[in-house]
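Q: Please design a sequence for this.
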């Protein structure tokens, strides 16, 4: 009787312990599931954030690419238009070159007759060098620049003067494009070129002295001083020449 009474409470206690163990096991399993769910949630959130970053990056790259494509399309169109224009310009180059050569030749022939052979030779040489049209035009522009520079220079040289009595050696003096003179080596004869009459006119002793001074100034043998000399051209002639040169330079463009 005594043993039976004592075993009942012990069994009840064992059941309570077993229930507690099971509850702990269930709680542990639930916690494990919760932890696994949290980890998966965190991984999913991180993946979403990464996808968002990649999406923003792709959006920026697409915008930049679109802008580059637009720029390239515009550039391609400009190049296409330029090529069309280039073909037209290239076709016009021979005529432009011919006009420039003709204008240069006429200019030199109409100008004061100084260094004419040398100046004409520059024009002829360009045509004989076998250059492309663009290169020849560039060379012709260089000759134009040299021609314009003559108008700002004072120059002197010894050369041959053609006269009725034959050629003889003299010293030439050029003052821009307004005065062209010569003086014999002994100083006893001198002249000024009259552009309107296309001839030399003799100078008196006073004018020849000024030509001598001009020669020395051009050779840096004398300080600059005022010269009193007749001009080769009138002011009206010089203005006309300047206007003609500007017109011809404009025509070559």
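A: Design:
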């Amino acid at each position: 009787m005594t043993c039976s009474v004592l075993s009942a409470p012990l069994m009840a206690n064992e059941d309570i312990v077993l229930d507690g163990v099971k509850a702990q096991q269930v709680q542990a399993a639930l916690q494990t599931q919760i932890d696994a769910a949290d980890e998966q949630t965190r991984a999913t959130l991180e993946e979403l954030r990464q996808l968002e970053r990649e999406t923003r990056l792709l959006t920026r790259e697409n915008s930049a690419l679109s802008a580059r494509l637009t720029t390239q399309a515009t550039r391609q169109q400009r190049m296409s238009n330029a090529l069309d224009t280039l073909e037209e310009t290239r076709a016009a180059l021979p005529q432009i070159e011919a006009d420039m050569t003709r204008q240069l030749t006429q200019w030199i022939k109409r100008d004061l007759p100084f260094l004419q052979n040398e100046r004409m030779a520059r024009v002829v040489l360009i045509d004989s060098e076998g250059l492309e049209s663009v290169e020849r035009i560039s060379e012709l522009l260089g000759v134009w620049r040299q021609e314009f520079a003559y108008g700002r220079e004072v120059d002197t040289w010894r050369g041959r003067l053609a006269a009725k009595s034959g050629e003889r050696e003299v010293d030439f003096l050029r003052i821009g494009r307004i005065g062209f003179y010569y003086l014999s080596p002994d100083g006893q004869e001198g002249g000024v070129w009259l552009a309107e009459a296309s001839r030399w006119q003799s100078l008196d002793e006073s004018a020849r002295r000024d030509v001598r001074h001009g020669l020395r100034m051009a050779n840096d043998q004398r300080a600059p001083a005022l010269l009193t000399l007749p001009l080769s051209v009138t002011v009206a002639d010089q203005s006309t020449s300047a206007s003609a040169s500007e017109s011809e330079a404009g025509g070559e463009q």
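Q: Thanks. Anything notable?
A: The first strand starts at residue 154 and ends at 161. The mean pLDDT is 79.
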